[in-house]
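S1.2 Input.
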Amino acid sequence: MPYVKMPKDLSKVKTKVALNLTKRQLVCFGIAAATAGTTFFLTKGLIGTSAAGMTMIVVAMPSFLAAMYEKNGQPFEKVLKNALRTFLFRNKKRPYKTQNYYDLLGVQADLDLEVQSIVKKQEAHKKTAKRN
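S1.3 Output.
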């Protein structure tokens, strides 16, 4: 009897388009091939074949990284955006501030007592005004 493994978490399953690669990977590899090939053929005559090959690898690496890197289900550009936002744009010191609800309850109880005392004074003033 044939046996097929099924993953239990289907949210991590990605649709493969061709050569067991996703659309994202195919596009990034295409961009890498186009930039690497162009770089190689433009620099081959100027700096030599081996240096042009190394330059080609350096130029193609960001596209390969964007195609293959994934952390916590997020693609490379989202991870990079979050890292840049954290390191460059946010405050370095984030003070820890708490809001103590017990203090707020105590303040509210004091206010309630103050209101009750004001109401009692007004009622006492009304009673003395009626007697006179």
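S1.4 Remarks. The beta strands are 70-71, 74-75.
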